Amino acid sequence: MRHQAELERLARGLAAPVYLLYGPEALLKERFVRDVLSRLLPPGLEALNLEVLHGDATDADDVAARCRTLPALARYRVVLVRGAERLAPAAWSALGAALASPPDTACLLLLLATDRDRLEGPPKRFAEGVQGIVALPFAPLKEAEARAWSREEARRLGKHLTPEAADLLVGLLGPEAQRLAAEIEKLALFAGAEERIEAGTVEAQVGEERVRRIFELADAVAARDLEAALSLSRRLLALGESPLALLGILARQFRLLLRAQEALRKGKRGAELARELGLLAFLGPRIEAQARQVNPAWLEAGLRRLGRLDAELKGGRRDGALSLDLACLDLCR
């Protein structure tokens, strides 16, 4: 991820004069701010060299003046503007003109709370006009990124989240960092002195009832039972599941079934099959029955369809609940 590369540059003393942080992944954005502050502000001198402003209560002249104030007993002064999306269009233009050649003794952090991971309008023109600016998108994590991030988050808490456990966690919760971080913290507390967090622990702690309903949804789709699939998907949505997460869960289940079919060809059965797939033993007969019921070509075609719907949903081109209904309709044909 690009913001990780920027943190590595900061560790080498290469701070940009201006960081423009945007996109919907709020937790990663806040983590980046925290890391910038810890690297640029000497311990004990934070209050002397940090200014926190708000976009609806400041203007370009105020921000520029604070950036030009010399730091106290430190290399940098940091000016943090929260809610920068609320700056007036004229303020963006004026700030861009004032910081065309930004001072090398300040670091300006502009945080935009946006639903999109791309810049538009005045912030985009500002980013194009300021020398040395680093504009960083904080887009929703992709599944592979979320799995790697989850394992790193567990390491931060002194735990080893196995690859199978990370795969299951992301499959059950989706790739949102805030949600994953909260669940990983619970898993770490549950693990206690135990260092490893296995897939079985994830399955038990995330919620057996939820896991059961997800398997029922996968059962209904595999049986081409459209009425049951729509009913279960809507029940899960009513319980607070996001459409994007449920599409991801269905895709994970399809990948799991393909792996189960391969394991069945090798003679794995029941509890042994569950162990092969990183599942709790009692799920072995269920996944075996599902795997025997469906055609591999149908699973692969379904994965492609789910991938297209996922991209459309992330791009804002479809309503979430509608995308889930379309997935059930397509898969149950």
Task: Itemize the secondary structure elements and their pairings.
Blueprint: H1 2-11, E1 18-22, H2 26-40, H3 46-49, E2 50-54, H4 60-68, E3 77-82, H5 89-98, E4 106-111, H6 121-129, E5 134-137, H7 143-156, E6 160-161, H8 163-173, H9 177-191, E7 196-197, H10 199-222, H11 226-238, H12 243-265, H13 270-277, H14 284-293, H15 296-314, H16 320-331
Parallel strand pairs: 1-4, 1-5, 2-3, 3-4, 6-7
Keywords:
7 strands, alpha/beta, Rossmann fold, 16 helices, elongated, single chain, 9% strand, 2 domains, Zinc Finger, Delta Prime, domain 3, two-stranded parallel ribbon, 333 residues, 5-stranded parallel beta sheet
Descriptive report:
It is a single chain. The chain has about 325 residues and is an alpha/beta fold. It folds into two domains: about 1-135, 3-Layer(aba) Sandwich (Rossmann fold); about 200-330, Zinc Finger, Delta Prime, domain 3 (Up-down Bundle). About 60% of the residues lie in helices and about 10% in strands. The chain contains 16 helices and seven strands. It has helices spanning about 1-10, 25-40, 45-50, 60-70, 90-100, 120-130, 145-155, 165-175, 175-190, 200-220, 225-240, 245-265, 270-275, 285-295, 295-315, 320-330, and strands at about 20, 50-55, 75-80, 105-110, 135, 160, 195. The strands form two sheets. Strands 2-3-4-1-5 form a five-stranded parallel β-sheet, with helices on both faces. Strands 6-7 form a two-stranded parallel ribbon. α5 (about 90-100) links the parallel β3 (about 75-80) and β4 (about 105-110). α10 (about 200-220) crosses α12. The radius of gyration is 24 Å and the shape is elongated. The relative contact order is 0.09. The model has no long low-confidence stretch (mean pLDDT about 85).
